[in-house]
Amino acid sequence: MTIRENNLHVTNTLTRRREKFEPLALRPTQGDPEHGRGVAPPHVGMYVCGPTVYGDAHLGHAKSYISFDVIVRYLRYLGYDVTYVQNITDVGHLTDDADAGEDKVEKAARAKKVHPMQIAEQFTRRYFEDMDRLNVLRPDISPRASGHIVEQIEHTKRLIERGHAYEANGSVYFDVASWPAYGRLSGRSVEEMQAGARVEPSAEKRHPADFALWKRAEPGHIMQWPSPWGMGYPGWHIECTVMGQKYLGETLDIHGGGIENQFPHHEDEIAQAEAASGKPFVRYWLHNNMVTVAGKKMGKSLGNFLTLRDAFAKWPPMVIRLFILQSHYRSPTDFSEEALEAARAGFERLGGAAAAIEKAAAGAPEGDADPKITELVGTARKCFSEAMDDDFNTPLALSALFDLARESNRLVAAGGLAKGAVEALRGALAELGGGVLGLSFEATATGAADTQIAAGLVQILIQMRAEARKAKDFNRADAIRERLVEAGVLLEDTPDGTTWRFK
Ligand SMILES: [Zn+2]
Question: Whole-model pTM?
Fold first, then answer.
């Protein structure tokens, strides 16, 4: 065992209780599900519902993926060997939760007159670019729904064999009446669902709450595959069950996602998984709350959303990251310009402390940290861990970090810190603020300056190329352009002059 003292407690949506976190510590490998049990460090299998890739990520996505990024980082900090799986939904997510409407990716593709896979590819790449800028670590596995059609068909067949699903007219539905535990996660009874306005009755369904595992492809539907029930495509919920179990085993330690996905998405995931395996699907269900604007949910369909790309134009990604971490993952984050500006000031305080420590490091005399510094850093680490152990309370963890930054500034300003003292301060800030909370202080401070310098240099080269062309030295002009392309800069000649962008 190499786990630090584990006192982590999480709020499990399934039991509605705060529970001590105890993973199965089992690393599934193909054909040997028991492999790795008890091997140090214990393993954590974690699955989080990923984006449906038909548009740019917005602040609501940032809330979800930064929250779970910090959870992964903290588990790793504690010493767990985490396998983090987050899917990419590129097929099957319809515009309406009740198995009706259009496929979201196909709809976007039709509007742009391109293949749906082109839309999926484009927005998958842009999603990762946005997350990289927010310093969100990439998942260990990012499985695509369209890459797991065979597994989804096999799982659907198993559910039919076990009497939990039925075919109707080329589509296959899960039979909720056959599964009494249905509704346990969301706390809804099947009768309530029947009365619920969102569940439209369908001629094919035996019960209005039944949900699609496989959908018959209507004429003109581009994304379709052959199946025992004819040409079609998978229902949205089945992909997460199948891909989670494929890579993490029949029982996942953690399943995360947005609070809005508790029903029907996660409820359906549980039913499909447990009805087929007979084992608990997930030990801990964790749900993040949403981003609101003046108290109302921010969402694409509501038209009040801010894409991350638009947000980055106003605030550095690290400021947005800090803004998200200032509220608990289970609480809403209310967006306003003022709140973002406050986060900017907060980030500058932390970044300022980090920069001051770096400066102090340069001239620090040899020597160990004195007991006062050791105590200060020890207290900061203790407060930080206690906050994070309490269901990942990032606002409280941040306040421990701000306290440390304030004290550190005072000590650095007083001068005379020995190398050991500077190292202790630097180590705590880097490990807790950088490693666990993912706040990259250097990247932003130097990043902005580097970009400015690069822009200036490109302008000089564009000028030199223009002069070469004027002097009819086309070889030289072309060479400048080629060298810039090699360095990752693309030029474009327009009637108004030459513009440039990074590749
Ligand atoms: Zn999902």
Answer: 0.85
